[in-house]
Amino acid sequence: MARELILKLGKKITDRVDVKLGMTKLDENSPEYYGLASVVTDEMAELALAMKVRVPTTPAEIGKKVGKDPVYVEQLFDQMSMIGLLEYNWENADHHKQWTLPIFVPGSAELMNMNLQQVETHPEIAQFFERMSFLPLTKITCMVPPGGAGVG
After folding, report:
1. Is-above-0.85 flag for pTM?
2. pLDDT, tens digit (0-9, with 9 covering 90-100), for 123-152
3. CA 138 remoteness from chain centre
4. Could you tell me which of 74, 82, 41, 42 has the C-alpha nearest to residue 58?
5. Is the domain defined by 4-135 classed in CATH 2.40.50?
């Protein structure tokens, strides 16, 4: 049975228009689901769902939203970064560490594949990356002329 939080997170992050608009529902066979379900816990998904896609945030902000201790949230953010779900940086005025929930490609689907041990343990992550680099573009590639017209 599909984990509801993972389905919600997959829908939140995906770039597939049909999924975003609710025309296609995610299930266990959707790459958004099986790519996340293999490495993301429900608790991680809860934190990620409290974040905005591509908007930097801090453990204090998310901890306040979900009612969890910011120190604990930061520990989970670090784990989520290690598996490739989140990115972090210090690109702000006072150079504090901040985390971002990226889209799948470019973003978390790529980052998840940078960990060879993780890919060997969960080979579905490689297929997840391939699918997420292909599926969001299927509706527009027919409009790109030969040669690419400067796309890419």
Report:
1. yes
2. 999 999 999 999 988 877 888 888 888 776
3. 20
4. 74
5. no
Which residues is 99 bridged to in the sheet? Answer: 57, 88
- pLDDT tens-digit readout, 9-18: 999 999 998 9
In this predicted model, what pLDDT tens digit does every residue of 45-88 receive, in sequence order? 999 999 999 999 999 999 999 999 999 999 999 999 999 999 99
Structure-block tokens of residue 145: 């002329």
SS (H, E, C) the chain: CCCHHHHHHHHHHCCCHHHHCCCCCCCCCCHHHHHHHCCCCHHHHHHHHCCCECCCECHHHHHHHHCCCHHHHHHHHHHHHHHCCCEEECCCCCCCCEEEECCHHHHHHHHHHCCHHHHHHCCHHHHHHHHHHHHHHCCCHHHCCCCHHHCC
Place of tokens 């608790």: 43
CA contacts within 13 A on the Cβ side of 22:
0
d(CA 50, CA 48): 5
Token readout for 135 is 């599926």
Q: Please name the residues in contact with 134: beta carbons below 8 A apart, sequence gap of 6 or more.
A: none
